[in-house]
Amino acid sequence: MTAHVPPGWPDGVPPAHTPGWEDRAVLWLLDQCPPDYRGHDAWRRHPFALAWLASKHLEGQVVAMRDAWREARVALGPQLPPEALPEVMAQIEAEGIRLLAASRSARLLLEALKGKVFAPRL
């Protein structure tokens, strides 16, 4: 049976439980976090901890983007030229979609690091 990755598995990370996958997962997870996270050696040595922290970080960012979406028209509208608000709103939406996908990917890595084996669905 060949290795399988579920929908939402992060690009550039080999399938779970294949050679080198954890190293690539750590790099991907660090890319999703603030740059200061790279300075914590324990998180590189313990990928499960990093995946848990990255998942929490991404969940927080999703909440922040939802809040921004709800508040942007009132908070930014009076301060921006009329043509700018739709552009800003579209970018908030796009970033929210990206963060949701990254959050799902981080959760999948967390599950794999717990030992879950993903199998194709029929």
Structure description:
- The chain has 122 residues and is mainly α.
- It contains four helices and no strands.
- The protein has one domain.
- It has helices at residues 21-31, 41-45, 47-76, 84-113.
- The model has no long low-confidence stretch (mean pLDDT 94).
- Based on CA inertia axes, which overall geometry fits? elongated
Which sheet architecture does the biggest sheet show?
Answer: none
Which ranges are low-confidence, i.e. pLDDT below 50, for 5 or more consecutive residues?
A: none
Rg over CA atoms, rounded to whole Å, is 18 Å
The proportion of residues forming helix, as a percent range, comes to: 55-70%
- Total individual domains: 1
Number of strands: 0
How many helices? Answer: 4
Offer a quick outline of the entry.
By secondary structure, this protein is mainly α. The chain has four helices and no strands.
Helices and strands, with pairings:
Blueprint: H1 21-31, H2 41-45, H3 47-76, H4 84-113
Helix pairs in contact: 1-3, 3-4
What are the key terms here?
single chain, 122 residues
